[in-house]
Amino acid sequence: MENAVSRNGNERRLFVFGLGYVAQRLATRLLPEGWKVAGTTRSAEKAAAMKAQGIQAFLFDRGHHLADPKLALRGTTHLLITLPPDAEGDPALDHEDEHIADLQNLAWVGLLSTTGVYGDHQGGWVDETTPLNPSGPRGLRRVKQEQGWQKLAARAALPLHIFRLAGIYGPGRNALEEVARGTARRIDKPGQVFSRIHLDDIVGALRASIAKPEPGAIYNLADDLPASAEEVTDYACGLLGRPSLPLIPFEEAAKTMTPMALSFYADSRRVSNAKLKNELRYRLRYPNYQVGLKALK
User: Fold this and answer.
1) CATH fold group of domain 13-168+198-222
2) d(Cα 288, Cα 224) in Å, to the nearest integer?
3) Pick from 150, 167, 158, 142: which is nearest to 221 by CA?
4) Across-strand partners of 125?
5) Are 203 and 25 in contact (CB under 8 A)?
6) Any residues with CB less than 8 A from the CB of 129 and at least 6 apart, and which?
7) Where does the NAD-dependent epimerase/dehydratase domain start and stop, copy by copy (predicted)?
């Protein structure tokens, strides 16, 4: 990783639209290296916590634009967008696109998207060349978000990189936590398979891309072992010394699922990470959920 001063002598400053789970982890890696980190949140309480970490915090959402965009974005050399689009679109793109286009020292722009843009492939493999065919409104919003940023990148010569994330797990967000809380369920949907990615491998891939920018690149972020959700839950039970949970037929479980959970079960696919490995030369710290969960135990 390069140090906190870029090749042209500018101080390296990361600005994040939506400084949440992934970006917080990235910030903890960059701040000790001398980077400046700034970002947005919707909550004054979270803004205070960010400031306590040494992060410049700005309130922002669809109904609350940046109070002074030029001031907030001044000096930004690296820009990360993690905000999911809402029904109206991408708030950052809709409200701050011209201010972003005016930034003069951008070396890297990253957009976190989702492998949901590929839709259902009945357990088949997808890669970055697979046509986008989302199966629901959330995936369609993501496709439109990607296209919107690609259009802005073409117009303003932004060094855009798109990262399509598989299911995220990591500290505080994993099957071990669900089993320990008693909220885990083993849902039986034959043929259903998901891909996953550990939080630290997302951060590692972002850092690898920052160190080796390839404007226009798209990368799938997924590990080596797609698996069903019930397999992962069963493995977590074993790690914790708990008995296996009973299998619940999907049709029964679906009656109490949230719309987001149902959207995950609408698709079945295996996500290739060959480009991440071969072009970005990134080596996964957690190549499968078994290694990842053991490390979290």
Assistant:
1) Rossmann fold (3.40.50)
2) 6
3) 167
4) 270
5) yes
6) none
7) 112-221
Name the DSSP letter for residue 171: T
Per-domain boundaries in the chain: 13-168+198-222
Least Cα distance to 204 among 219, 190, 216, 189 occurs for 219
Under-50 pLDDT residues of the chain: 1-2, 7-8
For the residues of 255-268, what is the DSSP string, one character each? GG--HHHHHHHT--
The pLDDT value recorded for residue 2 is 46
- Please state the separation of Cα 173 from the chain's center in Å: 13
Element at 73 (helix H, strand E) = helix 69-73
pLDDT in tens, 231-282: 999 999 999 999 999 999 999 999 999 988 888 899 999 999 999 999 999 9
Query: CB neighbours (10 Å) of residue 47?
Result: 20
Burial 159-183 (b: 16+ CB within 10 A, else e): bbbbbbbbbbbbeeebbbeebeeee
Which stretch of DSSP H or E encloses residue 235? helix 229-239
Q: Quick one: tokens of 264?
A: 């995950």
- Please tell me the distance from the alpha carbon of residue 85 to that of residue 111, in angstroms, as a whole number: 11
Show the tokens assigned to 162.
Answer: 């798109």
Measured CA to CA, the distance from residue 289 to residue 286 in angstroms comes to 7
The CA-based dihedral angle spanning residues 215, 220, 222, 227, taken in that order and rounded to the nearest 10 degrees: 180
> Which of 281, 123, 290, 172 minimizes the C-alpha distance to 223?
290
What's the rounded Cα separation, in Å, for the pair 150 and 133?
18
